[in-house]
Amino acid sequence: MSENNDSGKATISMGASTKQGYEIAEKSREIVKSLINAKTKDLTPEEQSIVERIVHSTADPDYADITRISKNFVTESLRAIDQEKDILTDINMVKTGINSYSGRVDCYIRDERAVKIAKKEGITRAAAAIRVAAQEGFDGIVAVGNAPTALLEVLELHKTGEIKLNSVIGVPVGFVGAAESKQALKQTEIPYIITEGPKGGTPIAVATVNSLINLNKGNKA
Amino acid sequence: MSENNDSGKATISMGASTKQGYEIAEKSREIVKSLINAKTKDLTPEEQSIVERIVHSTADPDYADITRISKNFVTESLRAIDQEKDILTDINMVKTGINSYSGRVDCYIRDERAVKIAKKEGITRAAAAIRVAAQEGFDGIVAVGNAPTALLEVLELHKTGEIKLNSVIGVPVGFVGAAESKQALKQTEIPYIITEGPKGGTPIAVATVNSLINLNKGNKA
């Protein structure tokens, strides 16, 4: 069930690393498929596997209704992952959940520079942390699982050409600004995955990244 | 919005550490209250604040319907936190989300002994990690945000007197075994919080622990 294990067994295992874990993951996969098959029938197999993993991680089939994936998201994300480009997360919980990636996973929310910028400019630390990443020359996939302000900062830096992006996993959560920040992402040309409305969160961001990592492993196998 | 920041501002801030973050958290709190007030009116103020934080973290008011808290849960948990007793988590994502605790937060899922036990006995690593914690003399609050097998292991070790517990945050997620493991916890005399059915997850576990930490800070202030 874990989004927090190493795994060799690519797309089916969903993070399981033991026989019992593997059996649970397989049973869960069947149940998830039966619950959301009708809702995901127009998606590509890769997109389906991402949505399956999100529903597996949350036990919430609603995510099959509210997840939106841009046409170029899977291709652009897999290209970045295959090239081992960086993954940037808004908070450390998302970073902790991504643990079988051969590239770098960064989060600057506890970086002193982020703390300083946040204080000086009266913005959230999550937003300031994105600015620090851009200053560090970040280039890759951004995964926002928590803070709408971090997602808005990504869009702002993209507009001014100050951040290099392959794709954005934009699934911040909350009743204040989350839905709006995701709509704003949807209106750009950035390859994206979002969840419509207030729902989202770290498990959704982690499930998406780990699903992409497994899809890339599957492509290579 | 973050479950992942340090914070001095006790119960209201919900993890915010900047002016903007604080304003967002306060607005969110009002919205959450308006959404769930009717559902939580029979809870104590402390229990209400826990449920509010769970709904804030997930943007999912359903959690106000499915969260169950035993009568002695808040008192026993606050006693443990005030004494800075250990908190044990099933996976590292939960541990990462708890970052303003003055006591220890442990997770043994990557411990070599857990890997060995899991392989030898054909159990999940999350369950084996609980056994390692018990062998290490764990005594405090257990927070299971992911693996039903970890929660069942806690109950088994409690039955045989091999683990010392103040309370259990039992919110594993998934369609295979999660609901059953939570029902099993409910039938013990252990002080508990659970979410009925398959839903649960790391944000729920983290929100509960951080809410308790803030309640304890509030009591001292």
From TrEMBL, chains A, B:
Pathway membership, UniProt: Cofactor biosynthesis; adenosylcobalamin biosynthesis
Annotated keywords: Cobalamin biosynthesis, Isomerase
Entry keyword annotation includes Isomerase: yes
InterPro entries referenced in this protein's UniProt entry, alphabetically: Cbl_synth_CobH/CbiC, CobH/CbiC_sf
Domain Cobalamin biosynthesis precorrin-8X methylmutase CobH/CbiC, chain residue ranges per copy: 23-214
Molecular-function annotations in GO: precorrin-8X methylmutase activity
Domain of life: Archaea
Biological process, per Gene Ontology: cobalamin biosynthetic process
Matches recorded under NCBIfam families: PRK06264.1
Membership in a protein family: Belongs to the CobH/CbiC family.
PANTHER family, per database record: COBALT-PRECORRIN-8 METHYLMUTASE (PTHR43588)
Name of the protein described by the UniProt record: Precorrin-8X methylmutase CbiC/CobH
Origin organism lineage: Archaea, Methanobacteriati, Methanobacteriota, Methanomada group, Methanobacteria
